[in-house]
Specification:
Six copies of one chain form a homohexamer. By secondary structure, chain A is an alpha/beta fold. In chain A, 33% of the residues lie in helices and 25% in strands. In chain A, strands 2, 3, 4, 5, 6, 7, 10 and 11 form an eight-stranded mixed sheet that branches. In chain A, a hairpin with a 2-residue loop joins strand 8 and strand 9. The longest helix of chain A has 26 residues. The N and C termini of chain A lie far apart (61 Å). Chains in contact: A-B, A-C, A-E, A-F, B-C, B-D, B-E, C-D, C-F, D-E, D-F, E-F. The interface between A and C is large, with 39 and 39 residues.
Chain lengths: 227, 227, 227, 227, 227, 227
């Protein structure tokens, strides 16, 4: 744990059918399906609205102001991966721009999730390469110290193991541990199926109070209506 | 004040002609017209740009991580209302998503103002249901503890009494107390009428220094020009 | 320094060919070209996406909740200028709206950079007048105390001397000191020329590891690959 | 509500025996006794450790950077009062120092609670005049605009009505509405009486699990022990 | 990982001689000895100055506003342990006060590290039970939902495995993984031994520039002295 | 400006009688005497309470995570100096500990003001070497990149020119430009002389309303008293 100076080339990725399948349900439904765990802190925001992705995590641990390992992690990307970048201390520098994005896309990466800053966001938006980050900053970085690739990292408060699934959209970023991913996909699908029906009812004016039969429990808890 | 476990069914809403009329002037002009009071803290941001609404406040007080009362408040919504949600302690959870929005819209709500998080923002944007919130988060909530509906609440630092008018747009959210609303509408209209004329003059190159006759006061205050 | 109550009418602006030329390279490239200095803090954000400008700084120092000097600085604007507004203490008020923007545009200003709040952002967006600010707020200001115009100011943590060049885009705001501007333009152009070529290589799948010949240095630093 | 330019001279203060009696229980016990409402946001911190007070609220609403009304509120202080200062927009200025504290003490004030900054904290500490504030700042203020005295205010997110009880200590600041104060005192005393007994048991090694008989509920909720 | 509803009774604690031995070197030296990893975010602050401890981590995962599991973890404490409490979402509530501290002390706990709030800090200070926390808050919690005990947790951005060593003092909190602890102790001792000598030299006026022989490297890097 | 890689050996220090004389008035009085300018942002806090110093600024510009230049600046310290450390981007690392403090004290430094983190605060407190910093952090730094010494820097939002006077105490940190220092000393002394008299009056129960003759102005501004 927290080894520095190592690159793990072989990681156990979550089965791609499962990893790919989670995208359509989005971060909120998947988070709910997992029992409300796995969410990265809500300061993680997309650089543009509307992207919705899932993929397998390859991880990189960087040092403040130093993005050398971004080039090392690029080589470990396989199609369908999402790069998850953690920093060993708080930093707002722009670690990633259009050149690295070009390289990541050529390797098949679907997105970057980084607990620091990013830059060239206008170009990244035009390229359609989505990034979820803590901030946006023009400030570049040096290439001087070793971090690590594909070790477990803590990104925006959440532990990410290489091969876990990342689900990200306008609502935020969720990490689904590999062992829970197939179950999460199933549960998310079940939730979604269930929701279409509810939406119709609610749209017709039925209240959640009645649809979920909440009135008895509210009464028992002591809710009083005052005219 | 701060009663828990109660729902007030009858509130005195601001006259709808007044409440509806304030939307067109926007939060900045209305705030100005009221003598610069009533603004919720500027961390309250719209989930998408361009919405501009006004309406009468129905309020809900919730507990951290618990959105049970959202279903209770839904029943109290009348067409033209805006739901104002306060939390009894700081919380970033996503209390509100597309299902509740469907229900709120079916009841005639125009918007939600919430001092916490919201989710499903992509769908909410497509539905055209505007929300002003402290943050965005996938994290869902439980349904376990009683709060209250239509009691006075403090939302983002501002006291909101049920029936007050809420004015919200890209600049923020303003609460207009019921007793001040008719006067605020009048004053906002007067300010607006006055502004068209000013805008033309300024566009033609006339300086505010001259248009507002500021030079004598600046000179008196001691302003020195140095060449 | 920090004189109050003065307006410097004559400032040495950076040569306009240089000041204008920097816009196309954007804040990240210019920041890089300057050796990674000059960036305003990354909390400075554009009110709408996509604007990319450069221009010569005219500066204004204001007090919390007081925008009187905004009218004074308007008179000192020349075509091609960008107004840089600093506040003598932290403040989130909305110092600037569509009327002042109309006046600034009539004088030839290209943008406003302000370490406080701005309002009327919907109208400003329609007018195409870009602002980089710390926040957005409906809250207006009074006109009561003297600040200064065209003295050196510290805006969002960066020293700005009147006549310096400001480069701003979606990535943030950079200040280029007048004495460094010609060199920065040259270096930025050189960097850009160099990047097109790199982008192509990376898009074809060549890794940065090889393109920049990083492998020997990484090995020397002790990087280990584990299968 | 939010009247400006008024001073209410006659307010209904909570009975002094009740107001004074709450101090000994401290903010945590009182907050608990009230059903966990009434707490000002936890960013409110004492300028020195160890003070523990209660008293009746006299309120003052100030504008950013302007402490004129501090002198107006001083006249309304009676022995046993605590001044609660709200600002009409976020501000970190130092509104209060040793001179005002001398005046407040001479009038019988027990403390100041202010949603902004304070200064002269070394002298205030020596004088033994406790202040709970958002921050500490050398920055002084002007005396130019009218606020109000003894109107309801929102301070650090909590509504405070003149005459309510304020309880403040190292844990924070709680507002007890006048109508709830006698009951809160009773409940706090009951809680405290109950705690001494518990403390002894816990100190002897008895677990809360057993003392509160939590094991059946935990088991029912599904808690599993793994060896 | 992130199992809910489980309590691991048997964890592999770091050898107590090692765990205990780290206290005397303090968090800064230990962090340095580990190669500058393992630090919890610097917002973690002691509730009183001067405490310096180390011990083996027992972990607890709690939900926002719910401290039920605090009673569950109490039973798993052994003499020499430090409780590390993580919350499943951001929360500032006061999860821990003097009653729980009495229980923890009776079980032999040396400290609490919690990524949320704590209360009764005056009493805790008198009892000499040190806590490192994100904030201080009077706000109490409910006892309603299951978390877990002795699973890996992320606390203030750092992964903590039950049995790891925690080192905490006025400078912050460091987590030393069990596998690295013996080596970290050795390296910390070596660093410390080395420092006494340096301190004397520096006190006599010798410069670090000369003591560390930095001048050639600075010159090579291009440092210029200007008279 | 913002030269990197240079050390200015000769700076014009403010006259020592003036620089030394400002300490006794403290940051609030000096800030007031200067017309309310010069204050570093209020997040700058002393590591222990009670220190009150003034001295001449020697400046150092450092990079994130790199304290190499701290050793370079040590050589430029003369008795009576205060080191002012700025960082080229936001950083919370602990740049300074007891060894550097030993060296700084041996050179005659009175304090450090740093817009980043510091560590070994327990030992620094025992040594009586005061530091004003943005945060406290165990995290150490590397020694790899050149910054500069005795160039103008922006520290916590304020421009500091080498040789300016720094005044720091529990209320914060103020920078007095060299050219204004003698005048500021005079004005501070005048303010202080004036205050003793006022304090006595206020202690005797005289109101500021009467002592400053504020009643006519308040009446003119429209203040109404309501019984």
């Amino acid at each position: 744990m927290y080894e520095l100076g190592v690159v793990y080339r072989n990681i156990e990725r979550t089965d791609s059918a499962v990893a790919d399948g989670l995208a359509r349900y989005g971060s909120a439904t998947v988070h709910e399906a997992m029992g409300r765990v796995g969410l990265l802190k809500p300061y993680m925001r997309p650089i543009y609205a509307g992207a919705q992705v899932s993929g397998t995590a390859v991880t990189v641990l960087l040092h403040p102001g130093d993005n050398w390992m971004m080039h090392v992690v690029a080589e470990q990307i396989r199609p369908g991966d999402i790069v998850v970048a953690a920093i060993s201390a708080e930093c707002t520098d722009g670690y990633f721009g259009d050149l690295l994005a070009t390289s990541f896309m050529a390797r098949g990466a679907r997105a970057l999730v980084i607990d620091a800053g990013v830059r060239d966001v206008k170009t990244l938006t035009e390229m359609g390469f989505p990034v979820w980050s803590k901030c946006i900053s023009s400030k570049g970085t040096i290439k001087a110290t070793l971090g690590s690739v594909n070790t477990p990292v803590v990104c925006a408060g959440m532990l990410v193991i290489p091969g876990d699934v990342i689900v990200a959209d306008d609502d935020g970023v969720v990490c689904v541990p590999r062992a829970m991913a197939a179950k999460a996909l199933e549960d998310a699908a079940a939730r979604e199926a269930n929701e279409g029906n509810k939406r119709e009812k609610l749209a017709s004016g039925v209240l959640g109070l009645d649809m979920y039969n909440m009135r008895p429990a509210l009464e028992k808890a002591g809710l009083r209506y005052i005219d």
